[in-house]
Amino acid sequence: MKQDFFADIILPLPLGKLYTYSIPEELVERAVPGVRAVVQFGKHKLYTGIIRVVHKEAPEHYTAKPLLEIPDHFPVVTHQQFRLWDWIAEYYLCSTGEIMQAALPSAMKLQSETVLAGAEGADLGLQIHTDEELKILKAVAEKKSIDVAEASKISGLKNPLPLLRRLMDEGLIVPQEEMRDAFMPAKITFVKLTSQSDSDPHFMKEIFERLEKKAPKQLDVLMTLIRLTTDTELPITRSKLIKASGSSAAALNQLVTKGVVEMYEEDENHAYGFARGTSRQVALSEFQMEAYELTEALLKEKKPVLLHGVTSSGKTEIYIRLINDLIGSGKQVLYLLPEIALTTQIIGRLKEHFGDQLLVYHSRLSANERASVYMKVLTDGSEGSYKFPLIIGARSAVFLPFSAPGLIIVDEEHDGSYKQMDPAPRYHGRDVAVMMGNLFDSGVLLGSATPSIESYANAEQNKYALVKISQRFGGIKMPEIEILDLKDAYQKGAVKSNFSFRLSGLIKEALERKEQIILFQNRRGFAPVLECRHCGWIPQCINCDVSLTYHKKSNHLRCHYCGYSTALPGACMACNHTDLRMKGLGTERIEDDVQELFPDAVVQRLDLDTTSTKHAFQRIISGFSNREIDILVGTQMITKGLDFDNVSLVGVLNADHLIGFPDFRAAERSYQLLAQVAGRSGRRFKQGKVLIQAFQVGHPLLKFLVANDYAGFFRYESNEREKFSYPPFVRLIEFRLRHRNEQELNYLSEVFVKKLKSSFGKRVFGPVVPPVGRVRNYYIRTVLLKLEKGLSDKQVKNDIRKLTASFLSIPEHRSVFIQFDVDPM
Ligand code: ADP
Ligand code: ZN
Ligand code: ZN
Question: What's the CA gap between 239 and 252, in Å, rounded?
Answer without folding.
Answer: 11
